[in-house]
Write a structure and sequence with these properties.
Blueprint (H helix, E strand, L loop, with lengths): L1 H27 L19 H50 L5 H22 L1 H23 L7 H9 L7
Length: 171
């Protein structure tokens, strides 16, 4: 019986050794190597010429936007001056036909004169200041564009590439 017990113990030991040996080997082997994902390739830095082209294109956009803003300010100023001219003509007609002895006629003339004065204050105040500032900004941007960018030969292929991916900073 004792020999049977020893045989079974030996058999059990061998069985455990067969089962545990691969686990021991697996514990000692390093984990499998997975290469890291490829790094994103950064685009090459822009060439000085492409950076200059981008700056000029953005400056041209700015000049165009300021030109449109200046035109809108000029239209507003022209409308204000036109209204002022109409009111001046209406006042002149009213003055020629006004009865100075009639209080209603005098009151109507004064009301028209107050209206004309209000339009004059607006035309010489905020509207004129807006137009003046708009013209100054447009002239400054236009002069900068002309000094840096106008009449400069550009590589048409590079110009097309820069235009396709152009992003201008906010103003």
């Amino acid at each position: 019986m004792r020999s049977l017990f020893l045989r079974r113990a030996a058999l059990l030991g061998a069985y455990v050794a067969v089962l545990v040996a691969p686990l021991a080997v697996a514990a000692q082997t390093p984990p499998p190597f997975y290469p890291p994902p490829p790094l994103a390739v950064a685009p090459p830095p822009p060439s000085p010429e492409s950076a200059e082209i981008a700056a000029c294109l953005c400056l041209k956009q700015s000049v165009d936007e300021l030109g449109a803003s200046t035109a809108a300010s000029r239209r507003s100023d022209d409308e204000m001056r036109g209204e002022l001219g109409r009111l001046d003509a209406q006042l002149a007609r009213e003055r020629a036909s006004m009865d100075v002895n009639n209080p209603q006629s005098v009151a109507r003339f004064r009301q028209m004169l107050d209206q004309r004065d209000a339009v004059f204050r607006r035309s010489s105040g905020p509207v004129a200041a807006d137009l003046g500032g708009s013209v100054e900004r447009y002239n400054a941007a236009s002069n900068e564009y002309n000094a840096r960018c106008a009449n400069r030969p550009r590589n048409p292929v590079l110009l097309g590439q820069v235009q396709a991916s152009l992003t201008c900073p906010p103003r």
